[in-house]
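Readers of this paper often ask what the protein records in our data store actually look like. This encoding replaces a full spatial description with a residue-level series of whole-number codes. For reference, a complete record is included directly beneath this paragraph.
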Amino acid sequence: MSKQPTTHRRAFIIGSTAIAGGVAFGLYTLSRPHKNPLEAQLDEGELTFNPWVKINANGVILIAPHTDLGQGARSLQAALIAEEMDLELHQFTVETGPPAGAYWNTAVANNIAPFMARDRSLASNTTRRVVSSAVHLLGVQITGGSTTAADVYNKLRVAGAVARETLKLAAAAQAEIPVSELRTAKGAVILPDNRVIPYTRLAEVAANISPVTNVDLRPPSEWRLVGKDMLRLDIKEKSTGTSIYGIDISMPDMVHATVCTNPRIGGTMNSYDASEAKDMPGVKAILKISNGVAVIANNTWNAISAAKSIQFDWGPAPYPPEIETHWNMLSDSFREENLDGEWRNEGHIDETLTKNTPTRTLEYRAPYLAHAPLEPLNATIKMTSDRIEIWASHQVPRMVQNIISRITGISTENI
């Protein structure tokens, strides 16, 4: 069995800490790890093992901080932890976790650094290390750039393996049996006589012992979930129409808003006339916002109806109005003076292609494409004098905290 190194030159696993009768482990890089954000949000009788695992009387909760917008990121993250912890798919639930620096993206630096992924020169590797250090110190929690798998593939498996082996050590102490005689399966430690000790009964003991840091990761030949046919965790709800989306949130006395902005992206709003809209049923306010207006009403129908009645004078678009002109601008840009970067230039094309080489000229066109979420973009915000709660599907949740903090003056800790 290949062994996954766990104490690199710039990485280590923190020691165990008693937390509400539980135990905390975590895998962090650099010498100053981020705090486990779950510690401050534990319910009574709930335990945390690391930023990705909680346990309560009802079972195990796995944290999937990368946003799932239909690409399966939530199922991937949970499967990596469950694989190493020997959990079956029905033995845990999944939560997104709070916005926190502990969930910083270890792989995003490769996208930010101005080098091709295949470039492993001293300059490129040095730049990646500098960028990665900055991403860590800033706690950049982001889903994007196809970095989710690269970010979590190792750290979630190691975190799961550390939890598994430490729970085995706790079972060995409790049952007074050598740990080498124990195994795990289906969310429990199995004793030599086949007695079963569920993980939920071992957390308190595990809190008082040092974590097992020299762990072996399961080789692919032993994988049960990763790389196997596995239904995404949300497939049943999405297929049966029972999935709860952000737009389904409802609260007492909640008002609804819709916005109108220039349909010509980047264009300005010269003026608007909302004299008819402000007197329509249910309308509570019409507010000018950046490049448009927001209509606030007692329900979505009244908000949208009022918004449709507003007369706008939109400014022109900062781009040509006809698509044919777009194509002309694009084709005209293929000139040497417009070349802003050449990522790759390999082979000997000019030497290989001679005047006698048959050539064929082809032109391919592809339209501009936008993301198409399964629901209208939306957010729900509950605000009091000193606290704000936000329900939104966002790729950079800590950015949302910072933006709302600037607008309201409330600290990010209370958002």
Remarks:
- The longest strand covers residues 283-289.
- The chain has a mean pLDDT of 85.
- DSSP finds ten helices and 18 strands in the chain.
